[in-house]
């Protein structure tokens, strides 16, 4: 998987991770991939809903040392 941009949203509380994700995804071309690192536990459900409503694809997610990592393909 080719990562086109990495967003560091660690330490940010709702709604900032989604606000920064929206800004970052707007800078990408369709089909490009954004990798996001966050620590807000509520971000997973927020991101899932936001990606679906925006027509983006959540490719995968994992947790590593309390850091949530997500990969989204721009729709």
Automatic annotation (TrEMBL):
Highest taxon, organism lineage: Bacteria
Domain UPF0033 positions: 5-74
InterPro entries the record matches: TusA-like, TusA-like_sf
UniProt similarity note: Belongs to the sulfur carrier protein TusA family.
Protein name (database record): UPF0033 domain-containing protein
């Amino acid at each position: 998987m080719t990562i086109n941009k990495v967003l560091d949203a660690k330490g940010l509380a709702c709604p900032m991770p989604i606000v920064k994700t929206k800004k970052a995804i707007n800078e990408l071309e369709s089909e490009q991939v954004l990798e996001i690192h966050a620590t807000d536990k509520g971000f997973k459900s927020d991101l899932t809903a936001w990606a679906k409503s925006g027509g983006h694809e959540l490719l995968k997610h994992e947790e590593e040392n309390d850091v949530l990592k997500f990969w989204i393909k721009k729709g």
